[in-house]
Design a protein that fits this description.
Order of helices and strands: EHHEEEHEHHEHEEHHHEHHEHHEEEEEE
CATH architecture of the largest domain: Alpha-Beta Barrel
Shape: globular
Number of helices: 13
Number of domains: 2
Structural class: alpha/beta
CATH superfamily of the largest domain: Glycosidases
Oligomer: single chain
Number of strands: 16
């Protein structure tokens, strides 16, 4: 089994969508008591977004510049988030059903884009028929050994007497040591490659899963589609997952933690930030760093616009770093237009489609970053070369072939100077200018410089 991820990931820019909150393309399939679009999110109510809504907005996404979509769970489930699966072999009717997924994939591929589904294989929901059978028939059920049930009768209160995700009784965990459970879930993996021609999986709560099962998911995915991308949700350092063919990439929550510490909370200085990045990079095989899912927001974290308290200059510094650092930059829906949101479920606010309410300046900045990355092999594939890390100044270089790109970030309230030594062209900047061989950066300013020669 090949360890390295598919080559297309180095060119990928991923857009994460929480389907219920993105766009309502077919109001007739809305669940009862659907929230008004724009109302504050509620944990147990729906906005009515669906897959047809995503189809309607694919040209918006293509114009933005993204080329891969990651959908949070879409299979039949009672909740709006659908991490409590009821039927893995059916797209939820509220999202448009199987036909909507197949049409979406076809339209995505027609635009030269790819699509990833969310695989929730650690647990299902209490409404899954296998769990219902096990709890109603007890040890006579053929599914009794599919779960970790301690005693009869099965109870959820005051505490569940069965193993469940993070102690949440609505999500009973599968017993992945049972070969029948594994084959059932691997059948899910095969089914959606075969039926809908998807391009890969994001695996939920990888740290809860058996490593050999994760490897089996990846191997099965590659058998179905050799260029499939298998991505894992890792909240902590995940070195071991890249040493034996378990994953192609991972959601880089550790990187997110360091970005917030340095740019937002100012808990660490530039030197410490650089040291932490070094340890993180060197904890993974080099190829794995280039396939990491580098994000700042997701469906269960506060949005960066809210964390920065309106300080757009800090948001821009973080975004520039994400798009210039090794790995796959990821955008959480609506971040590009300045949507705010606190802790889950507030971070799942409905997408704003009234363009008068968009942060146009931020949207244009996203487009510039995407275009910059697409036109620079150094930013997509180049080696990482650390530069200066002094107080709030953090610089690094990316080099590929005859292209050298220098990224300078001033995360401080005072102007700084940086000796570049050679003449470079400024590709992107805010309050930055070159005086002979010195780059002058105003407070919270940045610059991206490039030099292309025969011998860099």
């Amino acid at each position: 089994m090949q360890l390295k991820p598919p080559e297309w990931t180095s060119d990928a820019i991923i857009y994460q969508i929480f389907p219920d909150s993105f766009f309502n393309g077919e109001p007739y399939n809305d669940p009862p008591e659907t929230l008004n679009w724009g109302a504050s999110p509620e944990r147990n109510r729906f906005y009515g977004g669906d897959l047809q809504g995503i189809i309607h907005k694919l040209d918006y996404l293509r114009k933005l510049g993204v080329n891969c979509i990651y959908l949070t769970p879409i299979f039949d489930a009672p909740s709006n988030h659908k991490y409590d699966t009821r039927n893995y072999f059916k797209v939820d009717d509220a999202l448009g059903g199987d036909e909507a997924l197949m049409e979406l994939v076809e339209q995505v591929h027609a635009r030269g884009m790819r699509i990833l589904l969310d695989g929730v294989f650690n647990h299902c929901g209490v409404e899954h028929p296998f769990f219902i059978d096990a709890t109603s028939r007890g040890k006579e059920s053929r599914y009794w050994n599919w779960f970790h049930i301690d005693s009869i009768p099965v109870t959820e209160s005051p505490e569940p007497n069965y193993r469940c995700f993070a102690g949440y009784g609505k999500m009973p965990e599968f017993d992945l040591s049972n070969p029948q459970v594994r084959e059932y879930l691997l059948g899910v993996v095969r089914y959606w490659f075969e039926k809908a021609d998807i391009d890969g999986w994001r695996l939920d709560t990888v740290e809860y899963l058996h490593p050999d099962f994760v490897r089996a998911v990846r191997e099965t995915s590659k058998e179905m589609k050799p260029e499939a991308y298998v991505l894992g949700e890792l909240l902590h350092l995940g070195t071991s997952w890249f040493k034996g063919g378990y994953l192609d990439g991972a959601m880089n929550y550790r990187l997110r933690k360091y970005l917030l510490s340095f740019f937002v909370f100012n808990n660490i200085d530039a030197k410490t930030f650089g040291e932490k990045l070094y340890v993180l990079r060197r904890s993974y095989p080099d190829w794995a760093n280039y396939a990491m899912y580098n994000m700042i927001d997701s469906h269960d974290r506060p949005r960066i616009t809210t964390l920065c308290n309106g300080k757009k200059e800090i948001v821009r510094l973080i975004l520039l770093f994400l798009f210039a650092y090794p790995g796959v930059p990821a955008i959480y829906y609506g971040d590009e237009i300045g949507i705010e949101g606190g802790s889950d479920p507030d971070c799942r606010r409905s997408m704003i489609w009234d363009e008068k309410l968009w942060d146009r300046e931020l949207l244009e900045f996203y487009k510039k970053l995407i275009e910059l990355r697409k036109t620079s092999q150094a930013l997509r594939k180049g080696v990482f070369i650390p530069g200066t890390a002094d107080n709030g100044l953090f610089t690094f270089e990316r080099g590929y072939g005859n292209e050298r790109v220098v990224v300078c970030l001033n995360n401080s309230p005072v102007a700084v100077e940086y000796e570049i030594g050679k003449p470079y062209d400024i590709l992107l900047s805010r309050s930055a200018r070159i005086d002979t061989c010195t780059l002058l950066l105003d407070p919270y300013a940045f610059a991206v410089l490039r030099k292309t020669t025969e011998n860099v």
